[in-house]
Amino acid sequence: MLQFAAVAGAAALALSACSSSSSSSSSESSSAPSASADGVLKIGTVLPQTGSLAFLGPPEFAGVNLAVEQINKAGGVNGKDVEVFEGDSGDTATNIASTTADQMIARGSDVIVGAASSSVSLTIIDKITSAGVLQISPANTSPELSTYNDNGLYWRTAPPDTFQGQVLAEVVTSENVTKPAVLVLQDSYGEGLAQNFQENFTAAGGTMAGDPIFYDPKAQTFDAEVGQAKALNPNGIVLIGFEESKKVIQELIKQGIGPKNTPLFLVDGNLSNTLGKGLPQGELEGTLGTLPGAEAPEAFKQQLLKVDPKLEDFAYAPESYDAVVVSALGAIAAKDDSGPAIASQLVDVTTGGEPCITFEECKKYLEEGKDIDYNGQSGPIDFQDNGDPGMAVMGVYKFKSDNTYESDRFIEGTVPAASGASPASS
Predict the structure, then answer these.
(1) CATH number of the 162-292 domain
(2) Model-level pTM?
(3) Angle at 182 between CA 181 and CA 188, to 5 degrees
(4) What are the tens digits of pLDDT across the range 150-163?
(5) Are 155 and 183 in contact (CB under 8 A)?
(6) What is the CATH number of domain 32-158+296-389?
C-alpha cells in the first residue's frame, strides 16, 4: 500500500506547491491602470458556451446569475443593483475569448468571471489585468497562474492542481492501482495536473507504467495513443482531458482496456453526467473522478435549477457563485466598485473575521463596520495574497450503473502559498 501524509476525509492536506511560471505577481495593485468606479458593479463573463468545455458553461452561468439575483434582492452593492453581461469563452482553437474580453472591457466591466480553461485564461489575462479589471476564475487550476505577473488582479475560487494532483494520487492508490498509465491532453492544464499527479504518486512509493502520453484534443482518432497506453500493460488508466475524453474512452473499450477491464480515473475537466451518454450501459460503473469544491447542498441545487431548469451537472456552479459574491463583498468593503479596489479587499473578506455564509448576512456585518470571513458554497476559500484559495475541498465521485455519478467522499485541505508567489494586492 502506498503511503500518503494526507488523510482522506476532513483532514487537512499539506501540499507542496509548485509553479511552471518564472513570473511573480506584483505586490502593488496600483501598478495597473485603475478602472473608473461609477458606483455600479458590472460583472462580465467569459465562460464556455461553445468549445471543449461547453458542458461546464450552464452550471457556471447559473452560479453567476443566481448570485447576481440574490445580491440585488438584498439591496445590491453600495446602494445600486449589480449588472451582468454574458459572454462566450470558446476554447483555444478559436479567438472567441479575446473578442469577448474586449467586449466586456468596453462595456465597463469592473470584474470578469472566467475563463473556465486555464489555457484560455492565459490568452486573455494580460488584456484584462492591464485594463485595471479584476479577473476571477471559477475553474482555472493550472499552477502556472499561481505566480503569474497579474498586477494583483487575477484570482480564482478553484484550487490549483497541486491540490487535485495529491488527492488524485491518493484515490488511485486507494483502489490498489500500483502501475497506472496517464493519457493527457497537451495544454497547460493537462501538463500541470499530470505532473502533480505523477510527483505525488511516485513520492508515495508508486511506480508509473511509463511517462504520460500526451495527445491533441482536436485529433480525429486516439487509437495510437491508446495503443501506447495498452503496450505499457498498466493496471489503471488516469485520463486527463475535456469533452474529447468520450472518444478516448470509446477507443479504450475498443482496444480491450476500457473501464470494465482496467480501472479508469477521471478529473474535473471530464467528470460529467454527459460523458456516459452513448456508452454501453454500466460501462463507467465504479469509475472514480475528482472535482474541486464542496458538495452543492440540495437547497442550492434547487435554486440553480430555478435559474436554469435544464442543468444536468453542477460542476463549478458553487465556485462561479462565490466569484460574484466575493467581488460584491470586496466592493462593499472598499466602498468602491473598481477592479483594483475590490482586489485589495478579497483577502480581508474571506479570512479572519466574523464567519458568514450568505451575501445578505455578510453585507449586514460589513455595514456594521465588522470584519468578515465569507465561507462560500464552494468551501472556506480563505484567499491567499497571490489570489489562490488558502483552503479547498476536493470531491471524489463514483459512477453508477446508469453511467451517471454521485458523491463518494470529500477531502478538505490547506493550500500553501506557491513558491515564488508575491502578494497579489496591498
Answers:
(1) 3.40.50.2300
(2) 0.87
(3) 165
(4) 999 999 999 999 99
(5) no
(6) 3.40.50.2300
